[in-house]
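Suppose a colleague, Dr. K., hands you the sequence of a protein chain of 108 amino acids and asks what its three-dimensional shape might be. Before reaching for any lab equipment, you can write down a predicted structure in token form. Begin with the sequence itself:
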Amino acid sequence: MTTWVPVAQTEDVPPGRVLSVPVGDLEVAVCNVDGTFYAIDDVCTHDGGALDQGELEGNEIECPRHGARFDVRTGRVTQLPAFEPIETYAVRVAGDTIEVGLEPDELN
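The predicted structure, expressed as tokens, is then:
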């Protein structure tokens, strides 16, 4: 069963921006791509860099350390040196509140 966790207000994440938020034991990066919100692990699978510190260009986020890129919609790697995709999470907007959907085991 999905648990919806409120993480931010829509005004906190303008288009083209990323906001890192703690959700349980996770650091999740909430990305705004032209008004649509996506949530991903805030950790590069290449070397652990904080993705929220990188550039969001369209649907792709770039790790500031070595330039690995990921599609925030799917988690898919779009540019090396990363090989492993990042985790993505369900997102919904309730009024002005952005909520991230997690499974119970992801909250601990």
